[in-house]
Design a protein that fits this description.
Elements lengths: L1 H31 L4 E4 L2 H10 L4 E4 L14 H9 L2 E4 L9 H8 L11 E3 L34 H16 L4 H29 L3 E4 L5 H7 L2 E5 L10 H8 L7 E7 L5 H10 L2 E5 L12 H22 L1
Parallel strand pairs: 1-2, 1-3, 3-4, 5-6, 5-7, 7-8
Helix pairs in contact: 3-4, 5-6, 6-10, 8-9
């Protein structure tokens, strides 16, 4: 009996010790599995990442209300980039004014030019309008080509494939789920693209006035000519002299609208529109957190619908 009692007491003591120990062992792996951390320079790449890896912790450096060429390398962004597993940016010098400083200060060994943790979307697809010789006299021109590729219906699926591959490399435990989401995303994108293609038939041959080359890829895909630009040179704000020249340009008479990104000052567009009775179409230049423009497909659909409405309105007035 004494032996049994000692054994019983020993087991109770051992059980009291094992219970919290087992609890710690059970919880420890879960605590060690931190959420994948992804740093996106622009909202479009955050939206694409979210579609492929919804559980990722995302930090977005810019918004639809900011010009992505010019932002401050804030301490919070430096800290986020330092802790990130992957950074996704446009490249082609779009972030040349702030990303190099951010990379240097964050000092993340994986997230650097050519490193496994940095994906530049512009390096995965051909760019329009490259320049062999660039100097400040040309304005804010990107030698690699136009970096605003997120509105190209044919380029985005290619970029999505590269992003999925990089996410799988960085987070191998999620590889199968990422591939499945990519396949579903492609199905949805192809369906949406077919709808835009049908709308493009009516828009083909039309022309618009733009400010900067933010919508160049989409307009070209739709067959819409960016006949005039409010900027006298890329990146330079519209001047009074240039606006007066545009007001007397014969090409303005055939334009269906003035297309302006939300982050741009619309007053020059309003001034010109008042003199020619043109519609001013203000749309986000990138994905927002608002319903209707919260994914790349929704954003492109929103812009296309706006152009169709402007064309119908203009046709009714002429």
């Amino acid at each position: 009996m004494i032996t049994d009692r000692r054994c019983s007491m020993t087991w109770r003591s051992l059980r009291r010790w094992l219970t919290p120990a087992l609890l710690v062992l059970t919880i420890a792996p879960a605590l060690g599995q931190a959420r994948p951390a992804v740093f996106a320079c622009e909202p479009e790449w955050a939206a694409l990442t979210r579609a492929l890896l919804p559980e990722a912790h995302l930090t977005v450096a810019t918004t639809a209300w900011q010009d992505p060429h010019y932002i401050e390398a804030r301490p919070s962004l430096i800290a986020a980039l330092r802790d990130a597993d992957l950074a996704v940016c446009s490249g082609a010098s779009l972030e040349a004014g702030w990303l190099p400083s951010l990379l240097r200060k964050a000092a993340n060994p994986d997230i650097r030019p050519g490193g496994p943790g940095l994906l530049l979307a512009a390096e995965t697809v051909p760019l329009h309008q490259p320049h062999q010789h660039v100097d400040r006299s040309l304005g804010d021109v990107h030698p690699e080509g136009n970096p605003h590729i997120h509105l190209d219906p044919d380029a985005v699926p290619v970029i999505a494939g590269h992003l999925a591959q990089r996410l799988q490399q960085r987070f191998p435990g999620e590889a199968k789920a990422i591939q499945q989401r990519l396949l579903q995303w492609r199905v949805n994108w192809n369906l949406a693209r077919e709808g835009w293609r049908q709308q493009a038939a009516a828009l083909a041959g039309q022309s618009v006035v733009v400010q900067h080359g933010s919508f160049h890829y989409l307009l070209r895909w739709l067959g819409v000519d960016a006949a005039l630009d409010l900027e006298p040179k890329p990146g330079l704000p519209p001047s009074t002299t240039h606006l007066h020249q545009l007001a007397n340009d014969p090409a303005l008479e055939n334009a269906l609208a003035i297309l302006v990104a939300r982050h741009q000052d619309r007053r020059p567009a309003d001034w010109l529109a008042d003199r020619q009775q043109l519609a001013v179409l203000v749309v986000p230049g990138t994905v927002t957190d608002e319903a209707g423009t919260d994914t790349l497909a929704a954003l492109i659909g929103h812009i296309v619908e706006g152009l169709v409405e402007a064309m119908e309105t203009t046709a009714g007035e002429r």
